[in-house]
Amino acid sequence: MVDSTLLLRFLPEFAILGAGLLVLLAERMGAQRRELFGGLAIAGMALALLFVAADAGLAGLGSLRGVGASSIDAPVATGALYAFSSLGLLFQGFFLASALLVAVALLSRPSREPGSPVAYALLLFATLGMLLVALAADLVFLLLALEVTAISSYLLVGYTRRDPRGLEAAMKFYIIGALSASLSFFGASLLYGAYGTTSLTVIGHSWPTGAGSLASAGYAFLLVGLGFEVTAVPFHMWAVDVYDGAPTEVSAFLAGGTKKVGLFAFFLLFLVPLLLVGTLSTPAGSARESIQLALALLAVLTMTLGNLLALLQKEMKRLLAYSSISQAGYMLLGLAVGTGPALTGASLQILAHVFLKTGAFLVVAAVAALGVGPLVADWKGLGLRRPYLSAAFALMLLGLAGIPLTVGFVSKFVLFSAAIQAEGWFLWLAIAGLLNSALSVFYYARILKTMYVDHVDPGAPPAPSPSEPSLAFDGLGWGRAGAIGLATVVIVALGIYPQPVLSALGAAVQHFLTLGV
Amino acid sequence: MSPEGLAFLALGAVAVGTALAALLVRELVHTIIWIATFFVALAGIYFLLEASFLGILQLGVYAGAVTILLLFGIMVTRRRIFSREAATGLSLHSLAIALLVVVLLAAVASDLAGGSNHTTIHSYAVVDLSTTLFGPYGGWLLLLGLVMLSALSGAIYLVREGRE
Amino acid sequence: MSDPISTASFLGLSGALLGVGLFGILTRRNFILLLISIEIAINAAVLNFVYFAAFSSTAASGLNGQAAAVVLVGLAATEIAVGLAIVLALSRLRGSINVAEATSLRL
């Protein structure tokens, strides 16, 4: 069973696993330097990214290729636990990008802080789970891979074990995660009961023709269980507290990375049945309608409530957390429409969000390290004192609002125009999305006004000095400065010249769709 | 009614009753006794369904290890070992959610009630189960191993007395 | 009267167990009780897998379900260990394992 091709196929995963084990080993052997652990993690992730790019067929990397071109987008064999799709490989790239940004930014945490090896090891294991989700072709495999990510991220949230806020956030995250897992597994057991298999392809193909109540209940449980994972309203309550209490770099990873895994799980679970029903002109059409309606309802609720609550927030981290909830709504919207262009838009939105949201949380981490308080009002006058950092944050906010020249605009444009083209009641989804985007501009603009327009009270005490003034880049440190800079460059680059990514995503989605049918 | 049917009804009633009792009694130590009984009742249902390997697994892992683990957890956080459950009125919406689940499944169950009832229980040899588990579904075990790896590395760090 | 081990009556049992577990997760404030509730909910899923495996149409599909049940048992035990680690770390800091007391985070 174990042969060399098996090793070759999982080169990116082995790179991540190896790096994680090396980090733990180095810690056991007495290493203490954060740079060593960070370097190992970053090297492992970079290597994995290289392997993923090679597998995806990037020109010039042919010699590194581990998965043959013929096994990518090939029909899934019955009973196979995993399969390689070009869309899955692209998502692996997204996940790795988010993890890399966070790993680089973590380098700037205080160097004496305990737990850095564990943080890096857990970050790597969480990433490993994410990579495996992207390959799943089996329901239990999918849920177990999600669980690898989930367990690592609970512990990651609490890794600053002397900080009660972090541990409380970890506890809350753990309870919600366990609830979500038990609902998902219950749903999986019902689907297994209905069709006698855990293969995603078989289940997906059976549902439209034999939509028994057992299977429908199974899908409903999975929808709720995974709804927690992607912070869809009304299963979102936990997210704000967890993002607020976790170390900010970890919040960046949760919002920019692990949440997207749940969305990809949605793709895997619901797309095949949706597509197949579309090709049938049978009573099953009403079943398709009901799933689409459920997803559309989730999407609109999530967008609207997330935005409305974000408007009310006074703390920066909580505001970003609510905005992150609302963004999940746009991604679900693409899934509800379910056409090729809509899915391309949703995938691009996910990619955009990886850089925008991870970047924004990392800026918050950097600003907090400079001694600025947690309230939005505390950021008053930051635009003058920290021009570069503020410019980067302003760009990220504009991107989240969907202003042109950022990747956020491109993704929303593709998504909404796809919804409009799909006709029918999807037009209303597009309108809901547009209205929500307009709504979100309010609170993003409010932050910008605080940073750039509001005057600092002349009688106020001078701005506090950085807690670690010795760090490079004005107290930011190489790690944070590098990660924020990298995110900024990508946001602008993809905003100005999105064609290559857009066409790659479009082709991958097309493969994914034809594979399903 | 068949003897199996009676046994099933009895074990099911015990399982639901002990699960509820475990959550509702006031002394945490009594909770442990109820939950252990719950695990044993489930093991009984597995034996009834001729899944003997799972029955033994249930007894070993749950009735044995998990119960001890929980007891241990109570002892280590001993400041409140015999403490009573803090007054927590039943929050209405959570009760509603729990009921919703039961109603949904009851609807499914009544939908299925008219269908054919199963008669024969299949039993599988442990050999076949293990070749399945280590053969086509080996990936699951590897993933479970990864879950345990990250759980172990993080959990040990959290509870270890650190030099800080 | 129908045979008591019909799918319908069986779903009644596993649904009731899931309901009890959910009820506990949503209302109990003592962390140990929360862990127990999680176990009950996961056991409902394990029970389903075992049941559907026992009445599956082919041996291959039955073994598929039993294998899933075995893996799920292992997963649930791991989750308990992680939960206990978090609660031990927290109780060392706070001296209390009541979720409501320990949580300074707002809802």
- Using DSSP, what is the number of strands of chain C? 0
- Give the CA-based shape of chain C: elongated
Overall average residue pLDDT of chain C: 82
**Which chains share the greatest interface?**
B-C, 88 and 78 residues
Unreliable sequence segments of chain A: none
Number of helices of chain A: 21
Strand-pairing-aware structural class of chain C: mainly alpha
Q: Any idea what the shape of chain A is?
A: globular
Walk me through this protein's architecture.
The complex is a heterotrimer of chains A (517), B (164) and C (107). Helices cover 74% and strands 0% of the residues of chain A. Chain A is mainly alpha-helical. Chain A has one domain. In chain A, helix 13 runs antiparallel to helix 18. The relative contact order of chain A is 0.10. The model of chain A has no long low-confidence stretch (mean pLDDT 86). Chain B has 2 domains: 84 residues, NADH-ubiquinone/plastoquinone oxidoreductase chain 6, subunit NuoJ (Four Helix Bundle (Hemerythrin (Met), subunit A), Up-down Bundle), CATH 1.20.120; 41 residues. Chain B has 6 helices and no strands. About 6% of the residues of chain B have low confidence. With 107 residues, chain C is an all-alpha fold. Chain C has one domain: Helix Hairpins (Orthogonal Bundle), CATH 1.10.287.3510. Chain C is elongated. In chain C, 72% of the residues are buried. At the B-C interface, helix 1, helix 2, helix 3, helix 4 and helix 5 of B face helix 1, helix 2 and helix 3 of C.
